[in-house]
Amino acid sequence: MRSALAVVMLIGCTISASVGDQGQIFRSNAQSVLVDVSVQRGRSLVHGLSAADFEITDNGVTQRVESVAAGEIPLDLSLIVDATWYSQGLAGADMGPAGTHILHGNARQIAGLLGAGDRFEVASYAAAVVQARAMSPPDPNSELSLGAVPTTYSLDRRYRITQALGMALMAPVASDRRHVVLLFATGRGEPELPSLEHIVRIATRADALLYAVLTPELQDARTHQPAPLFPSQAFIRDAVTRAAESTGGKAFLTGEIVGAFRDILKEFRQRYVLRYSLRDTPTEGWHDIVVTVPSCPGCTIHARRGYMGR
Amino acid sequence: MVWQWSVAILAGGSILASAVPPHVVPLDAVLLLDQYERGDYAAVARDLASVDDLRLLDHLDSELAKRSKGWIAAGNPSQTRRRAFVAGAVALEVTHALVDGQTSRDGWTHDSANPEALPRVARLIANEVSPPDDLEHDWTLAQLASWEEWNAAVRLTAGDQWITPEPVWAVLLGEPTLMQLSRTQTAFGQGGYLQEALARFPGDERLLLAREEGRESIETRCPIEFCFDEMTPATLDQLRRRAKSAPPETGGLAQMMNTRIHAMAVANLEAFDRLLPAASRFAALANAHPGLRAEANVHIGYLAIRAERPEMALRPLADAVVSDDPHVRYLAEYFTGRAFDALGRRPDAIAAFRRALVVVPDAPSAAMLLAAQLFVGDDSTERTEAYAVLQAAQAAVPRAADPWDRYWYGDARLWPVYMEHLRQALRQ
Fold it and tell me: Is ipTM strictly over 0.90?
């Protein structure tokens, strides 16, 4: 969905209290809301917009955009890697499980792209979800250390893509940070479709921005056209794509995770972060938000659909 | 790797049998038999657990297959039948260790062959003509659990050709392709152990349930790659569209893929149409055998959910939640939650998933669906709870196995129980 959305963060701002203790953030009647937005004309990002260019409604009530920032807010990255045996072919015949290869190779490169103040964590999934690295800043002075990557299998083959994504998407986001979930998956395997549909529902209410890098389909050697997908593959991709877009993120079809992340990061750093103080609507419960840019007719706005007030 | 497997299996031999590492001393099959005969089961379990190389286990299995007959005959003639069951029990222990080796160790650097000792010793036992007794019954059930467990493990490690139809049962019941790939013992046909077991114990409820579960697994699961076990209304619609029209004549890879997709859609819909008839058979089984009622009702509930008839699932599942067996009770609550979810009854679904997690704390299947339900509500405290529920389920050491993960594997979960019964019977 082209109108997919972005990260919302809520910053409670009591008049006297400082931001930082999330438990105290939303006590105030004056709830401050951050909305992560990208604006595109065609395939190009639109730069140079100011607060006056944006209009926001929160539960149908027009709000005043007080400030626009971009790029200064630090990033928490959750990297989720498909470690199922389906991914083995991606890594080459002698690589062993692709999860091992990807985690120890690509994760290092991805860590190198992060900025000062950013943090990242790594999890992989097969028959279980394993956190290979807890959320922490990359340390340029030491070798990237990842925990054990699962190469074993239980009697079932219910790959835990939904659990891995659920964990990342439900994680609370610190009020002074932005959270990006990056999924690298084959889009194959045997996830249970009903639970995959739950991920789409979870994504619509997540505070994180989800990007998915899915390996591309086979190409016809003669025509170079992509071969049709099996419905099961198509539905997995469709569900992941819908989940990503409903957070304001995107799904990419490429086997090159680092390159994809470089593009994602570039776009992410150029997003606008709008701030407004919630007025004339109760703070509690779910808030639907709509962002428009009247000064940019025909532009595509990527912002998420809402947030949970507290 | 997959083709290597196939070739090895078709050859009927082990690709690893001669690959005992030179620096280790393989376990002695006769020593294990003697230990078991003396009732020193702990020593056997300890020895098997100490083996961390699948090639050694495979070698032991081959040795056991070769030497069991001589070992049985070497005892007092009055003890021949008992010694045959001792050899059978050791074969079950070794097969279990092979399963454990395949699933809990590095599945990517080791291959494994079919168990050799178990079918061979089973034949020796079958040749011991005598009236059925408790010892034979215990052995029969333990063998049932072992084969179910083994074929579940094979499904994990052998490649795509094993995925469909459910090999756990396909091999047991004699699905031709898999029979050809596997030289392992099947349940039916010549020498089929389940067929022979039912001839020996025709009214045994576990065997009757196993037969029906196998039929369910084969008939209600689409026997082609990339099929759905469970569908959503949207997937069902698309499959119907795909099945209705012949694949387009595009040529090339697209033509090949479209042909496979069409075949998959047809097969998937055929499997879908068999869901409710399968549920009817379980209803008949429950009526005829009250001891199977709870388990049969769980199957009925799940089949109704998959058939997009969640309202039909609620009554049989309500009957099953009173089971004494936590495995059955969990599944009944879990499926109840899913039925309520499908019916749009969120509070009831949440309550059912909570009850499931009381039965098996932190089970990932119910935890995931409970968390999903909580997260999408309008209560921020539920949202916080949702994350905590998933975090707990992701604990490194699960407190108990998730029954949903074992749902398809019949009595495999009861292997330890059946083996303990067999050991006790051998002590007498």
Answer: no
